[in-house]
Amino acid sequence: MSFLMILRIAIKALWANKLRSMLTILGILIGVAAVIAVVSIVQGFFFAVNNLFKDLGSPGVSSSPPKPSPEFPPRRTTAERVVSTRSAARPTRCCRRAGGRPASRSARCRPRG
User: Fold this and answer.
1) Kind and range of the H or E element at 51?
2) Do residues 95 and 109 make contact, with C-beta atoms less than 8 angstroms apart?
3) Contacts of 61 (CB under 8 A, 6+ apart)
4) Distance, CA of 110 to CA of 73 (rounded, Å)
């Protein structure tokens, strides 16, 4: 098929489904306008807050994590949790024989060694 024939078929299909085509175009226009509006509003809030802090005499806003206290000990990171979980999970004899899990739900696995 040539490009002109494909274009002709596409135009005929659009002309045959006028309402569907117009609703599709309207939906695309509304979606693009909504995205542009949301981005503009967020940028406006950002600049307004930034100017508010500049008027107070601060060159910018920064934050830092709180210092640990005895009442609230520091939380472990995800990497620390993964390492401690892996070291706690030791393979057992029956788990090795059953392909990585106990032979039955009632089976108790003894640690190796």
Assistant:
1) helix 18-55
2) yes
3) 50, 53
4) 34
SS3 category, 16: helix
**What is the average pLDDT value for the chain, to the nearest integer?**
77
| Closest to 91 measured CA to CA, from 66, 105, 112 | 112
For the chain, give the percent of residues with pLDDT over 70: 60
> What is the amino acid identity at position 70?
P
Handedness of CA 10, 11, 16, 17 (dihedral sign): positive
Residue 93 neighbours by CB distance under 10 Å: 12
Nearest to 89 by CA among 103, 109, 105: 109
Q: Read off the tokens for 95.
A: 């788990």
pTM recorded for the entire structure: 0.45
| Main-chain phi, psi angles of 96, to 5 degrees | -70, -40
